[in-house]
Please model this.
Amino acid sequence: MPNASLLLEIRDLHVGFRIFEGHLRVLAGVTLWVAEGERVGLVGETGCGKTTTVKSVLRVLPIPPAIVTSGEILYRGRDVLRMHRRALHVLRREELTAIFQDPLQSLNPVFTVGSQLRDIVRDSMRTPEGRVLSRREIEARCIQALEETGMPDPERIMSNYPIQLSGGMRQRVCIAEALSTTARLLLADEPTTNLDVTIQDQILRKLDRLVDQKGSSVLMITHSMGVVRDLTQRIYIMYAGSIVETGPTRQLLASPKHPYTQGLMASVPRLTGRGVSEGIPGRIPNYLEPPPGCRFHPRCPHRMPECSVEAPPMSDVGADQRAACYLYRRSPS
Amino acid sequence: MAKYIGLRLLQSVFVLFGLSLLIFFIARVVPGDPARQALGLLASQEQVERVREQMHLNDSFPVQYYYWLRSLLHGDLGVSSYTRRSVASDLAQYIPATLELILFATLISFVVGQVTGVLAGYFRNSWFDGVSRLVSYLGIATPSFVVAILLLFVFSQVLKLAPGIGRIPIMMQPPPVRTGFMMVDGLLAGRLDVTVTALKHLLLPAFSLAVIHIAQEGRITRTSIVETMQKDYITLHKVHGIRTSRILFKYLLRPSIIPTVTVMGLDFAFLMSNAFLVETVYMWPGFSRYAMTAMLNKDLNAIVAVVLVIGITFALVNLIVDIIIMFLDPTVRLRQGGA
Ligand SMILES: Nc1ncnc2c1ncn2[C@@H]1O[C@H](COP(=O)(O)OP(=O)(O)OP(=O)(O)O)[C@@H](O)[C@H]1O
Ligand code: SF4
Ligand SMILES: [Mg+2]
Model:
């Protein structure tokens, strides 16, 4: 429930992409929030719009082709979508941080790790008295940030170029960059998808501890049920551009109510991250002409006539658990 | 890294060797009898025979090539049938004049092209982008000699803001020739007035040559900035709070400038032989004009030298471009240099 300590609130966000073939209606009313100190998971199969959601919050969608057609994004009550350049810059510098999906694309290839890390610390960190950090302090902070991610030999890594590092090392650098400063909300977009399973686990645990120490809030995007189960308190399930179900993580995973979530659970190979959509017949819809009404209806085993008329509203389906589905329309509240 | 540069040098030598074979073929094999060519139709058979002997024309082609290359390396390029001077001293005079001009043109196109390219790319679809696009198209579509005539007319004739033709005024006593670069020679002779005047004379022709390259290189940089801006790493630099100016002129510029550098090198080498119309408009005693005159007058020795100079320029410029790119792009450096 939204309350006073709300950090991030996305209300009914609609985002599309104008491409040559037409208008891709990707996000169709995403509503979610993250409270102060909370860890929230966002789960959904590939192409459902998770990255688009994160980039909207950071205001880094490529415009054009992207367009935000309606909705609101509030950070501590302030409207991010209407913020001016200056305020936006301060918001990113002081409040938000992110880790992106692909560690190969996340580091500038023509500068050393040290150069990038130092500039982040130099431009966004101040001493408690508001003074700019000295050279030595910057250096020390960078080394420390790398050490915290479990990176061996951070001094040497600082002088390396990204191509000299393995995928796992690069992702550690990305985590170090994201956590080198004192941001309050971490948007982690599948921080370990491209790594092998043992390293995934290691890095996530490290990330988990770091976030704990700093007391940051996290919006963790993943298609791995194992990851959300271990690392988040609350979860949102996303399908084709909207949230279909939300609730406390363990409770929701134990008793999923939305037909999509149920299919998802049935198909999840225990704890390994991959293959979310395998058990559900059909594919994610074409965003040029998304199915009317509930976007899941072409694949839904419980579909009813009204499902293809209008999108279903959220209904309570348990303690703090809600699903957007006509099956629960008359559920007692 | 040294290994990589060494390797590229070796490659250049190889290319030049190939070029020398080609030129040898043009100079010695194609014309039929170079001795007769050199002496003219009126010379007697004995005279021709004597010269044939001197020029080693009775030996096999490999032996001929050896002697030809040896004299070439000693700077003996023969006599120009048109200027009646040794080709080597012609080149010594004309090459620096053109180099001074096109180096300056390249500098102008680099600075102006990059700044407009970066700004147009970063402020994509702004009024600045629109205006710079329009001006670029005009610049690309207008031949450089038209620009040259227009600039000469407007700035020299009408506004009297710039001097007219030539490298320095005819009345001015030129400094002793040391490097052939008027500005440098002026400095070396302690004649600052010459250097300043020479610079003023350079402005219009250099700008005339630069216009099309400003336009092209600016466009290339803009495209590449727009492309780089979509990259996750630039997005993350913003998200992590790095200052905008730092992103613009450090993190965005360096990866974006790499494609432009290659084009810039080619543009420079191209100007070496293609500045002749502008050189003609400004009565610039340059290499391009010399090359054109040589072609028009079937001045064989001069043509051989011109082709050689252009070949060497391309080889050198390519080498320099590769080295610059190696410094800009660690991916190339690390891959080629073996750490
Ligand atoms: N720059 C773009 N131009 C056009 N369409 C885009 C663009 N970015 C995203 N899309 C569209 O938006 C849809 C959702 O993309 P998004 O990257 O948000 O998905 P995702 O949930 O992050 O998927 P994944 O798990 O594969 O990362 C894609 O199917 C794609 O069609
Ligand atoms: S609303 Fe209808 S189609 Fe959509 S999930 Fe519920 S039952 Fe299935
Ligand atoms: Mg994604």
Observations:
- Residues 96 and 180 of chain B are 5 Å apart (CA to CA).
- Residues 90-297 of chain B form a domain with the MetI-like fold fold (CATH 1.10.3720).
- Chain B is about 75% helix and 0% strand.
- Chain B has a mean pLDDT of 85.
